[in-house]
Specification:
Structural class: alpha+beta
Order of helices and strands: HEEEHHHHHHEHEEEHHEEEHEEHE
Strand content: 15-25%
Helix content: 25-40%
Strand order of the largest sheet: 5-7-6-8
Number of strands: 13
Largest sheet: 4 strands, mixed
Radius of gyration: 26 Å
Length: 347
């Protein structure tokens, strides 16, 4: 029954499709519709009719959240170690990460490699401090370390980690070692990482304030317990956190995602201009979600604001160039309503 519930996408009651929130009546005939892509969501908790069903949904959500935190934590540690010239896979093969768990004192639920990754993803321990323990500046313990060398390794870990205590300074959470501007191996944003794969959201979240588009230069930072947030480079919201928790990001080559953008077109107030602009959007395959046109300067000019969906920066740039070539268009730029400091950029 739990498996059916976890894959439930809808239902037919008395032969008619109904939403999951439909309240059953005495004598109803029910057919459950399942889908491999369906899964419990947090809002289901409001619809559960029994404490047992509510507990099952909570269990699923908790498991999915822990899986996501482990993925985030492993990716952050992999990047941290790459900046130190160490491959995470090599340490995993030697089980060096699993050996850290007794020293971390994270509780019974966080054991082995997965426990360390989950703790990093949840913000319980600092990725930099774990990186220092695994790859200290003096080179650390070798693959064939002796018992005394193992004790030295543990002392180094206790010294750099503060005995496993949760750090209090925001600067304890950087996503990459090294000086400002020196990136290790960047985390690559692909479709799987950018799009929601479960009830708790995506591993990498595209910030709604500046809505990055594949191809935009990026600034990223790590939010303990939530994941990685990607901003357009220069976004004021990101700059508030970047010194504390920076994570280096790069787009996967050729990646296309449906991303919202806002384009402002300044024109003269001539007949037919709006139709010309609409044709430009259609020509480039860009869907207009909303348009707002208003006149200024006593009706002599117009400001046309389009909310649209593009798949990449190259598609957006081509559209803007076409709009600029229309007779009567005075200027075109991509604007960022949620990040005014970026106005006039990325066009």
């Amino acid at each position: 029954h739990s498996d059916v519930g976890n894959r439930c996408s809808g239902a037919r009651v008395n032969g008619h499709l109904v939403p999951l929130r439909y309240q059953l009546r005495q004598g109803d005939t029910i057919e459950i519709i399942t889908s491999p892509n369906a899964h419990p969501r947090r809002e289901w908790l409001k619809m559960c009719g029994s404490s047992r069903a509510r507990a099952k949904v909570k269990q699923y959500l908790r498991t999915e959240e822990r899986t996501r935190l482990r993925e985030v934590g492993r990716t952050l540690l992999e990047q941290e170690l790459a900046g130190r010239g160490v491959r995470l896979a090599d340490l995993e093969d030697r089980q060096e990460i699993a050996r850290l768990t007794p020293e971390l004192d994270l509780g019974k639920e966080l054991r082995g490699e997965d426990g360390v990754y989950e703790a990093i993803g949840a913000g319980l321990i600092s990725v930099v401090r774990v990186g220092l323990a695994l790859a200290p500046p003096d080179g650390g313990a070798s693959e064939g370390e002796s018992a005394s060398e193992s004790n030295l390794f543990k002392r180094v870990f206790r010294r750099v980690s503060g005995g496993g205590r949760k750090p209090t300074s925001g600067r304890a959470w950087p996503g990459l070692s090294g000086k400002e501007g020196v990136a290790g191996s960047p985390i690559v944003i692909n479709r799987e990482r950018a799009e929601s794969q479960g009830p708790n959201g995506a591993m990498i979240q595209l910030a709604p304030c500046c809505s990055p588009v594949p191809g935009d230069p990026l600034l990223g930072y790590f939010v303990p317990g939530k994941g990685i947030v990607a901003h357009v480079e220069g976004c004021p919201e990101a700059l508030e956190h970047i010194d504390e928790r920076r994570v280096y990001l790069a787009w996967e080559d050729g990646l296309e995602l449906d991303c919202p953008v806002t384009i402002e077109v300044r024109t003269g107030n001539a007949v037919g201009l709006l139709a010309e602009m609409s044709r430009a959007f259609s020509y480039h395959g860009v869907n207009i979600k909303q348009a707002n046109c208003r006149t200024v300067d006593a009706g002599a000019r117009a400001i046309n604001t389009f909310q649209a969906t593009v798949r990449s920066l190259s598609q957006l740039t081509s559209l803007i160039m076409t709009l600029r070539d229309i007779d009567g268009v005075l200027g075109v730029e991509r604007v960022f309503p949620g990040a005014p400091g970026l106005a006039g950029r990325a066009s």
